[in-house]
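Action item from last meeting closed. Structure (259 res):
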């Protein structure tokens, strides 16, 4: 889970329109006003077309996305049944995958049992990762990790292990890059081809731990704590290859990391 910036209010979504849709819902005239196209789009964009809770990727309908990714639901942080006047309030809407919305959060009343709202709270103040498992740094984080099964190794981490430890996956990419960097630092003459390989590979690795990437909190936390990454950074600094591009990318990675 990463911090999200509040979505921009769509121009067509005036206060009068919000009141109208809310009234339609309360009177039973419109049972799903949150499905209004511009509301859905704004809410999905707010979490980079990912689930705001577990950060799995969802479909991006504005790109005519035909992938097998799940259609994201619009989750009401405060239950629409209990708080119908918040039914289309943008502060109350988050994109969530079907699993987080329908199987985990379900009918949880966030007023009675608060969980992290990633627009209001900063997840890194409440959640951490240790030995590949999420844990709560605070009661709010603990509750959130429990509800979304972020602490459950089988539920959450097996898919991430696959993501991280496949032959061509994250850590092997990092380890390969580490060796290339170590060789490069001893090489004479140093070739442009190797420099391109290093910068292209590092860019690709770091982009997988930025806000638009799936499971970015998890990826970013591990990247920054992985010893080979720190060594690669040291070598690139010595070789004057740690450019502004990587400084900026690292800021984005740090933003996502639960450290
Ligand atoms: Zn989810």
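Sequence:
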């Amino acid at each position: 889970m990463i911090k999200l910036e509040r979505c921009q209010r769509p121009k067509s979504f005036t206060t009068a329109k919000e009141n109208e849709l809310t009234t339609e819902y309360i009177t039973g005239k419109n049972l799903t006003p949150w499905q209004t196209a511009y509301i859905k789009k704004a809410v999905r964009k707010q979490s980079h077309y990912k689930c705001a809770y577990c950060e799995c990727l969802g479909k991006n309908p504005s790109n005519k996305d035909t992938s097998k990714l799940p259609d994201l639901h619009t989750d009401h942080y405060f239950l629409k049944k209990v708080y119908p006047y918040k039914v289309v309030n943008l502060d109350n809407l988050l994109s969530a995958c079907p699993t987080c919305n329908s199987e985990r959060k379900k009918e949880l009343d966030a007023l009675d049992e608060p969980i992290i709202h990633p627009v209001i709270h900063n997840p890194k103040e409440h959640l951490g990762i240790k030995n590949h498992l999420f844990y709560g740094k605070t009661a709010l984080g603990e509750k959130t990790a429990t509800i979304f099964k972020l602490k459950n190794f089988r539920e959450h981490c097996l898919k991430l292990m696959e993501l991280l430890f496949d032959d061509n996956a994250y850590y092997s990419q990092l380890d390969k890059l580490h060796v290339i960097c170590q060789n490069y630092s001893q090489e004479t003459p140093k070739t442009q081809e190797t420099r391109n390989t290093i910068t292209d590979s590092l860019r690709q690795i770091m982009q997988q731990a930025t806000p638009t990437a799936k499971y970015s909190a998890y990826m970013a936390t591990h990247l920054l704590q992985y010893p080979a990454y720190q060594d690669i950074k040291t070598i690139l600094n010595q070789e004057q290859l740690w450019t502004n591009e990587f400084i900026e990318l690292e800021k984005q990675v740090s933003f996502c990391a639960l450290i």
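Note appended to the action item: Residues 156-256 form one domain.
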